[in-house]
Amino acid sequence: MNTILKTSIDKLISHKLLCKEEFVALLNNNSKELRNELAHYAQIAKQKHFGNQIYIRGLIEFTNHCKNDCYYCGIRCSNRQLTRYRLTKENILSCCEEGYSLGFRTFVLQGGEDAYYDDEQMTNIVTSIRNHYPDCAITLSLGERSYESYQKLYNAGANRYLLRHETANSEHYQMLHPTTMTLSNRMDCLNNLKSIGYQVGCGFMVGSPFQTTEMIAEDLLFIQSFKPEMVGIGPYISHKDTPFHDQQNGTLEDTLLLISILRLMRPALLLPATTALGTIASNGREQGILAGANVIMPNLSPIDRREQYSLYDNKIGTGDEAAECIQSLRNHMQNIGHEIVVDRGDYSNLPK
Ligand code: 5AD
User: Which residues, at least 6 apart from 288, have a Cβ–Cβ distance to it below 8 Å?
Assistant: First the structure.
């Protein structure tokens, strides 16, 4: 490996930060050797904070209605091919019940931006989960809402919020979204969530259409300044019923490199090996863990709905990524030296 890259790796480990040009150089020189080197140090950093523990989150995809029309996403409002569904509070609670008995202590409610779930509906759902499961963390992933709405949901008992920034470059943001959506609004939401007290997750798709390595470097610089507790990244995967249906998918290799970089930038980060990563490669999630990820989010949604929550083509839903198959997931993690734990897995308060 050339000495410039070696110097950047050393700097990343010791300073936890690189400048834009250094990030770009790493991304442009992605090789097996570089990935192995970064993964090695990423694993050491992860081990320091988390040992060999992997946290699990039970993902409940409770609505695939969405008012937005993001060009990359299969549940965009213009997709008329999709059968839409909503889960009732009772449906959601029974997902939690199953999840709790399987050992989940975090529930992630994820959905499209669906006006049906107004503040009253949503606080009612969150309050019920909070009352039934006082020992569990509640994570929401419901997109952009007002400050007041985020505050009400926090007061009702939600602890964490996932809202990917998608890209930190505003021109790129506009290439991925209609003009009704803006990066500055997305950033306002992320800042609001943080100031209310949520543990916040941002993130982006790797290899999304029109993305350059400079843009990924901008994402990394944004993450460094925003200091999220969680970061969700996964490869872009095209969906047949979207304007981007013929765009190329992101790669496993780029995603793995970025997972290692993120771990080194923020050693105590909650960093999932995402479903999208498991979709582009059969052992993608294991590879994500070995690159530095420490969270897995198996699907707790009703089995007959999983196919309909179709963000991208061929999304996995019934193998190891299914909550029912937790034992198999546990075995696979054990085979790569990791242990799934029954724990809320809050952001580590160890020295960072
Ligand atoms: N490929 C990969 N990820 C996608 N998402 C939406 N559509 C796709 C796609 N086609 C991601 C977005 C969103 C998250 C819920 O899923 O980043 O924030």
Answer: 255, 256, 259, 272, 273, 274, 277, 278
**What's the mean per-residue pLDDT of the chain?**
96
pLDDT number for residue 324 = 76
Task: Tell me the CA–centroid distance for residue 3 and ligand 1, in Å.
Answer: 36
The pLDDT tens digits for 208-223 are 999 999 999 999 999 9
Q: Is the pLDDT of residue 202 over 80?
A: yes
Shortest-distance atom of ligand 1 to CA 235? 2
Q: Ligand 1 pocket: which of 205, 211, 301, 310 to mutate (most atoms <8 Å of CB)?
A: 205
CA-closest residue to ligand 1 atom 13: 164
Query: In order of start, what are the domains of the chain with their CATH numbers?
Result: 31-333 (3.20.20.70)
Does the pLDDT at position 67 exceed 80? yes
Residue 317 pLDDT = 80
Residue closest by Cα to atom 7 of ligand 1:
73
List pLDDT tens digits, range 271-287. Answer: 999 999 999 999 999 99
Strand partners, 180: none
With the most atoms of ligand 1 within 8 angstroms of its CB, the residue from 68, 72, 200, 301 to mutate is 72
Q: Which of 344, 308, 343, 302 is nearest to 323 (CA)?
A: 302
Residue 184 one-letter amino acid = S
Cβ-count burial of 225 within 10 angstroms (0-12 exposed, 13-18 middle, 19+ buried)? exposed
Question: Residue 140: CB partners within 8 Å, gap ≥ 6?
Answer: 108, 109, 126, 153, 158, 160, 161, 162
Split at pLDDT 50, 70, 90, the class of 349 is: low
**Percent of the chain having pLDDT more than 90?**
91
**Site residues for ligand 1, CB cut-off 6 Å:** 72-73, 164, 166, 205, 234, 236-237, 239, 276, 311-312
State the closest ligand 1 atom to the C-alpha of 203, by its place in the atom list counted from 1: 17
Q: How many CA atoms lie within 13 A of 215 on its CB side?
A: 20
